[in-house]
User: Fold this.
Amino acid sequence: RMLTRAIDTGQDMDTGSTGHALVENALADAGAGRLCLDDARVVALALALSDLEVRDAAVARSAGADADAAEHLWTALVREMPDPEAAEPAALLAVCALLRGDGALAGIALDRAEQAWPGHRLTGLPRAVWAAGMPPERVRECFCPPPAAAMPVRRVAGRSKRRSRR
Assistant:
């Protein structure tokens, strides 16, 4: 399989901006109903989602206006990726399901992620949220914190650096 060969041969890519663009394009295709996943695209998306920054952005996209497209993409990738790489889209699918209040699909997706990669780090929080039976509004708070600009800034009281004049 191409993914195994890419990893074994050390094939690498700039998963930063390239990875974001690959996921964006795949989401657009999924949303438009024209998603096509050949081996090369599956490999590229697997490598992109292995980058934590790209994956975290994918979590945010799963909660936004692209939620339906994201769920479609993650479902397709779970079917196409081998283990352990299938853990990433399976965990992302679980997040989508939790955000919609579909606990049954979330449980199945989490089981698939854990089967693909026992102890995968993205499964911990969704599993806890699923087990707690949180409603979608609370799930959104867990996975979509407010932007840093909206968060209050705390000032630390301390000694002024200005010198007093004598």
The first helix runs from residue 2 to 8. Residues 2 and 8 are 10 Å apart (CA to CA). The radius of gyration is 19 Å.
